[in-house]
Amino acid sequence: MGFSFSRNVCRVIVRRRPGTALVTGVTGQDGVYLARSLVADGHRVVGVASPGSATLAARRVYLDGVEIEEADVRDAAALACLVEKAEPDLVFNLAAFSSVGRSWAEPELAVAVNQTAVEVLVAAALDLRARTGREVRLFQASSAEVSGEATASPYARSKAAAEQVVRDARDSAGLHASIGRLYIHESPLRPATFVSRKITRTVAEIALGKQDRLVLGTLDVVRDWGYAADYVEAMRLMVDLDVPTDLPLGTGRPHSLRDLVTLASEAAGLADGLSHLEQDPDLVRPADTPVLVADPEPAAAALGWRAATRLDELVGRMVRVDLERLRSGVEERVDYL
Questions:
Q1: Which residues does the UniProt record annotate as the domain NAD(P)-binding (predicted)?
Q2: Rounded mean pLDDT, 237-264
Q3: Do 150 and 127 share a structural domain?
Q4: Which of 69, 74, 95, 300 could form a disulfide with 24 if both were Cys (CB 3.0 to 4.6 A apart)?
């Protein structure tokens, strides 16, 4: 897939002075953690969110100090206009159609969000550079699924195509553009449609007597789960590099889905969480990669970065927050982060 890196290249990182950062997908878990980190360091942050989104209404509590612009990333004219108006120094493209499973049913939507919108952002960044003479730096959030065995999924194909768009702009036009292939990372802000949050939410419900079973597909897939707050710091380091690069971002620590269920059950105080488990073959994806684990050494060498949060810490936090949500009835609160 054209993704390469060197463990032996010494790169220079200079923390950029506060400027303007445009963050697409600002209401997603990565967008929230990244926007808050940038605001804390004095950056002006313009966050792009889907118009009329219920997620935006819920997530505003986390986004103090962020200028919210509502735009559909599939609207090329609106997206290009946003870049022209905001004149960002940094562009973090985190907007994505991020469900591998759903992409089989909605492949055109996956392409529109994951590929075509990237083409628009890259062209707009180059236009802004030509108009102002200022360097514009871009971070493209890609996915470990691009390098997995399930590369036939519409999700993986669209992400791979987006990588090539970014790489071509870097190689042919000199755009300072870096690609992070993100391995699975979670937080209490992960939507319940994702298996990790489905697990933490359901075991919390079981612990409180609101549910009696957890229904999943296969339990044997092995993944590399990290904490979103750690990963956004790697994104910031990548745009600060003197020379842009492509890196896998992950913990390097393998765990099965069964491990995640066990850890979540323990965090919820369930004596035998697996006893509540039910497997449903209909929940198995059409194609899946059995093992998907990062090599953490390239990011350590290039950025001095390693994912700091262990899976038991991460899952414990997610379960505690889900328990509090169920007890309080409050779904979004700043201290949940």
A1: 22-318
A2: 97
A3: yes
A4: 95
Say whether both 320 and 239 belong to one domain.
no
Catalytic option among 69, 145, 163, 205 = 145
Q: How many domains does the chain have?
A: 2
Count, residues in the chain: 337
Of residues 142, 143, 196, 265, which has the active-site annotation?
143
Note whether residue 10 is domain-resident: no
In a domain, 314, yes or no: yes
Same domain, 122 and 181: yes
145 included as an active-site residue: yes
Q: Return the closest-CA partner of residue 247 out of 188, 178, 194, 309.
A: 178
CB atoms within 10 A of CB 41: 14
Quick one: 167 and 33 in the same domain?
yes
Q: Could you tell me the CA-to-CA distances from 155 to 27, 147, 220 in Å, in that order?
A: 20, 12, 22
Q: Which of 155, 183, 227, 336 is catalytic?
A: 155
Phi, psi angles (nearest 5°) of residue 291: -130, 130
Q: Are 179 and 271 contained in the same domain? A: no
For residue 335, being part of any structural domain is answered with no
Question: If residue 279 lies in a helix (H) or strand (E), which one and from where to where?
Answer: strand 277-279
Predicted pLDDT of residue 95: 92
- In whole numbers, what is the pLDDT of the chain averaged over residues? 91
Residues 63 and 98 in one domain: yes
* φ/ψ (deg, to 5) at 110: -60, -45
Q: How far, in whole angstroms, is CA 54 from its chain's centroid? A: 19
Lowest mean pLDDT among 8-12, 97-101, 214-218, 289-293: 8-12
User: pLDDT, tens digit, for every residue of 114-168?
Assistant: 999 999 999 999 999 999 999 999 999 999 888 865 566 888 889 999 999 999 9
175/108 same-domain check: yes
Our answer to whether residue 336 is catalytic in this structure is no
* Inter-residue contact 292 to 222 (CB < 8 Å): yes
Domain check: are 179 and 286 in the same one? no
